[in-house]
Amino acid sequence: MSLVIDQKSFSSRLMLGTGKYRNLQEAQESIQASEAHIVTVAIRRAQNAKSLGKSNLIDCLDWDKLWLLPNTAGCRTAEEAIRIASLGKAIATHIGQVNNNFVKLEVIPDPKYLLPDPIGTLKAAEYLVNSNFTVLPYINADPLLAKQLENIGCATVMPLASPIGSGCGLQNMLNIQVIIENSKVPVIIDAGIGTPSEACQAMELGASAVLLNTAVAKSSSPKLMAEAIKLSVRSGRKAYLAERMQKTLRAQASSPVYGISYK
Fold first, then answer.
1. Which are the catalytic amino acids?
2. Is the pTM value of this prediction over 0.85?
3. 104: helix, coil or strand?
4. Confidence at 172, pLDDT banded by 50, 70, 90
């Protein structure tokens, strides 16, 4: 059941974000309840907290048990994302993960819908891959772009289910299925998941993992929601591996029909 990214094994297929929580304690409790192994942190947010002398979540988590996935949230251009990615590497080194070259690549010039820039993402990804980063790019559900990113050496592709923070669920199922069927790297569904059932559905499609934040942070009980989504991701993965029954137009009795006469 382990998730493998760039030859590194992870114990959970649920990745959790660290923004939007009401307080640090709520974030800590939710991450613990989720049993997520990979936790993503916006580099800009962490840097701002440090410069203002404020406590931030990076200082409050046990990084012996978690793996940091720095992300370039807030970057509008490829050049900006490349620069911020380097800061992410420095943060990983600071917490003791000196071999952590992971970066969740986000290039988002659109402030209203927060849709990723495909050209900027491809440009930044190519540079970062060539600079020995393990790149996990956030993209629209575009099968052609996903394959291009895979071909240049990205460790995963991360298509959105629906816009960031929308909670609208899987609105791009056909394209996501095409991406999954044609990818040789892990496909991680990122953004738009609002409920455990939607996370389960993503995993049943064959996604390698799910990354979410708002579904947990903005629920009435984040800790409880984190636990629910943890279980749904596990359930969806098992269902995918078990392979569902074939659909038919006619009923098929599950109990014996011997001796029964239908008129």
1. 104
2. yes
3. strand
4. confident
CA 129 to chain centre: 19
- Cα–Cα distance measured from residue 233 to residue 199, given in angstroms and rounded to the nearest whole number: 6
Rounded Cα gap, residues 245 and 256, in angstroms: 20
| CA separation for the pair 151, 146 (Å, rounded) | 9
Task: Encode pLDDT of 102-114 as tens digits.
Answer: 999 999 998 889 9
> Tokens at residue 244, please?
């569902």
Amino acid at 132: N
Q: Which two tokens stand for residue 28?
A: 């800590």
Angle between helices 222-242 and 196-205 (to 10 degrees): 20
Helix or strand run (H / E) with residue 18: none
The residue assigned the tokens 């114990």 is: 11
CB 30 within 8 A of CB 216: yes
Structural domains in the chain?
3-240 (3.20.20.70)
Q: Report the alpha-carbon distance of residue 106 to residue 159 in Å, rounded.
A: 11
